């Protein structure tokens, strides 16, 4: 789940800034990488539901509910992107109006995935400390805390690079919508 939703999805978010080439190529790679991330997430949830306790026994914590919301948002976001990418007949005006929401929901879902991973790490560390009597200063605690800090730093860099105009490629086309003339220009 971490590899799919955080690492691969982070790369997919940054594809528009680091990948040279046409806008269509960047969109195709973005869609493909997000599809790989979604497949990793679905596989992760599927393996968790294969436990002998059943499906409902797994939804007892904030981590599990955040994960369910995250995968639902991620799946809806990917499906909308897929339909928009392959169905070019949509009015350009609609696609331009939806783009800021797509970016917001994508970054929100990415942040939610990181927050879900952080709560999962906290849940695991709590179980280790209460059930197995693992010390607060043990090697396991340090590894879990280091991983949590690493995920937080990684997400900060991904979101900064995605939002910062400094990192956008110079070839990126900016669309301007004029409310007065109801026309588009690039």
Give a written overview of the molecule.
- The protein is mainly alpha-helical and 186 residues long.
- The protein has one domain: Four Helix Bundle (Hemerythrin (Met), subunit A).
- Helices cover 72% and strands 3% of the residues.
- The protein has 5 helices and 2 strands, in the order H-H-H-H-H-E-E.
- The protein has helices at residues 2-18, 23-49, 62-86, 92-131, 139-163; strands at 176-178, 183-185.
- The protein has a two-stranded antiparallel sheet.
- Strand 1 and strand 2 form a beta hairpin.
- The longest helix has 40 residues, at 92-131.
- The protein is globular.
- The protein starts with a helix and ends with a strand.
- Residues 169-186 have low confidence and may be disordered.
Task: Summarize the SSE layout with pairings.
Blueprint: H1 2-18, H2 23-49, H3 62-86, H4 92-131, H5 139-163, E1 176-178, E2 183-185
Antiparallel strand pairs: 1-2
Helix pairs in contact: 1-2, 1-4, 1-5, 2-3, 3-4, 4-5
Rg over alpha carbons: 20 Å
Strand content: under 5%
CATH architecture classification name: Up-down Bundle
The oligomerization state is single chain
How many separate structural domains? 1
How would you spell out the order of helices and strands? HHHHHEE
Tell me the number of helical segments per DSSP (H or I, 4 or more residues long).
5
Assign the CATH class.
Mainly Alpha
Secondary structure tally: strands = 2
- The strands making up the biggest β-sheet line up spatially as 1-2
Q: What structural class results from the helix and strand content?
A: mainly alpha
Largest sheet: 2 strands, antiparallel
Membrane topology: Multi-pass membrane protein
Keywords: Electron transport, Heme, Iron, Membrane, Metal-binding, Transmembrane, Transmembrane helix, Transport
GO cellular component, one term: membrane
Transmembrane segments: 29-46, 66-86, 98-122, 142-163
